[in-house]
Specification:
Strand content: 5-15%
Number of helices: 4
Amino acid sequence: MVPQSAHSNTVAVTGATGKDVQVAATPSISLETLNEALLVLVLLSTIAWLSGSRPTDWLGAAAVFVTFLHGQLSFDMQESQKQMAEPTVANYHWSSRLFVTKELLWIVTFIMTGSWPLCAGSIIFATYPRWRFNRNESNEISK
């Protein structure tokens, strides 16, 4: 068992020289995060299948899914910055604004090109900040 350090995101590990060194800990992924990802994966897979199940549909669904995972991580980091007395990234709040703006632009692009699986993914992403906020609010109320 590796002892937890005073910092919640590091652990002390004995290095090759016999001295303890601090290394980043790998926190577990929450059940909520996994459920969100599973829901999005099912939705994107269904859309790819209903769109004709072409290789490009599946490739698009995979790309959109990985982008969603990146978005989840981005929002986790934003929420972490928000909780800091002095955020290490002063303009962190712009990340979510740019995220939604980017998705709205992609929606218009995908409608114009008829890329329906990608359009559906962008709609999911554009609404993600709202349903993530609602999820976090309901968790706070239930505590």
